[in-house]
Amino acid sequence: MTGSAGAAYKKRLVIALTLTGGFALVEVVGGIVTGSLALISDAAHMGTDVLGLALALAAIQLAGKPAAGQRTYGTYRLEVLAAIINGLLLFGVAGYVLYQAYLRITEPPEVLGVPMLVVAVLGLAVNVISFRLLSAGAKESLNVRGAYLEVLADMLGSIGVIVAAVVIATTGWPYADAIVGAGIGLFILPRTYTLMKQAVRIIMEVSPPEIDTSEVQRRLIGITGVQAVHDLHIWTITSGMEAATVHLVVPSDGDWHGVLDTARDILAEYGVTHPTIQIEPPGHVEGKSVV
């Protein structure tokens, strides 16, 4: 994420980080005082939110530095690395919560329902504010999307904690707390998997899922004067920044300038903002003749 959009989302991340970090401490204390696993689980998740938001903020800050030296693409990939770290943290939190839920179901402790409810309602308010701050940026940045998913999961987790607190306060049923805690852990897993899958695709330089590389190749070879297309590669540098390289074989007396312009236009239709197109004559394809 670059430019003015990056600056705007950086400001929102700072606000969300401050709110989430402050209330994570409140939930830790509330969970200990009330004996609630659901609150402690939500506090642990908010703790990963804090780290995730801090990583997202640092990634946007560093990604704004210009390319220099050996970093010919700058530091844009830090955004993707931050998303991967966020995903690993979320997997760890989910495992911890599920393990603690198992222990609590076998031996349910006493939980104070009313204080638990008060803390959970305040937590929901904080999560709603952070959710609204990050919702727009989640559509444009994988990094911000990671932080957004964490806050979304935490917001729904707070709703679950409220439900558990109401059940405990009105019925005294001790298993509600552990069940909600386990539900928070299970909710985290599929969303984290989706985030990690997207980030790994970028790290592995797999073509963006929305781009059909076979179709791109067919359109390029359909350009007037192009005899062959080879070494087509399309990948994502960071969210919203697609790159591509390709070799086009064009006769020596062909319209090289026209082919180059048309090829750039075609790649631009697929969102490629960093194309590298090599025009070469027949017989110059890796030292072999073109058939």
UniProtKB/TrEMBL annotation:
Keywords: Ion transport, Membrane, Transmembrane, Transmembrane helix, Transport. Gene3D superfamilies: Cation efflux protein transmembrane domain. GO terms for molecular function: zinc ion transmembrane transporter activity. It is a multi-pass membrane protein. One of its GO terms (cellular component) is plasma membrane. It is found in: Membrane. InterPro entries: Cation_efflux, Cation_efflux_CTD, Cation_efflux_CTD_sf, Cation_efflux_TM, Cation_efflux_TMD_sf, CDF/SLC30A. Its main location: membrane. The keyword Iron does not apply. The chain crosses the membrane at residues 12-38, 50-68, 80-99, 111-134, 146-169, 175-194. It comes from the Bacteria. This is Cobalt-zinc-cadmium efflux system protein. The lineage of its organism: Bacteria, Bacillati, Actinomycetota, Actinomycetes, Mycobacteriales.
